[in-house]
Amino acid sequence: MSDTHDTATDDASGQINADVLQNITVTLSIEVGRAMIKIRDLMRLSQGSVVELDRIAGEPLDLLVNNTVVAQGEIVLVNERYGIRLTRVAPASERMKNL
Fold first, then answer.
1. Which end of the chain is less crowded, N or C, counting CB atoms within 10 A of the terminal residue's CB?
2. CA 43/CA 23 separation, integer angstroms
3. Which DSSP letter does residue 63 get?
4. Residue 30: inside a domain, yes or no?
5. Can you tell me the distance from the alpha carbon of 29 to that of 66, in angstroms, rounded to the nearest whole number?
């Protein structure tokens, strides 16, 4: 009989191993805003069309991890690439609960 050890959990505690958890890949995305439109309007979209979003210019953008909002921020330019400067971050306990 072989004794196997699950590397995702600590020895006797049954808690998730932090090293394993921290190496899991997640999807990070930035949301500028949303819009609900009818399919007929979607079919009419073409190059140059404008879709009005539900946010006012200057409102913070949402930072999502696996489709869950974890922070908000503003767009910045870093070495000719876009980035986001975080202005509000959900507490760590709330972020982990929602992932």
1. N
2. 41
3. E
4. yes
5. 8
Q: Please check whether residue 68 is in contact with residue 47, taking contact to mean a CB–CB distance below 8 angstroms.
A: no
Alpha-carbon gap, residue 70 to 12, rounded angstroms: 32
Q: Does 40 map to a domain?
A: yes
| pLDDT tens readout for residues 75-95 | 999 999 999 999 999 887 776
Assess contact for 30 and 64: CB atoms under 8 A. yes
Question: Residue 30 has which token pair?
Answer: 């930035």
What's the domain count of the chain?
1
Selected residue with higher pLDDT from 6 and 96:
96
For residue 71, being part of any structural domain is answered with yes
Closest CA to 75 of 99, 95, 57, 51: 57
> Six-digit token pair at 64?
């999502």
Q: Please give the share of the chain, as a percent, with pLDDT higher than 90.
A: 57
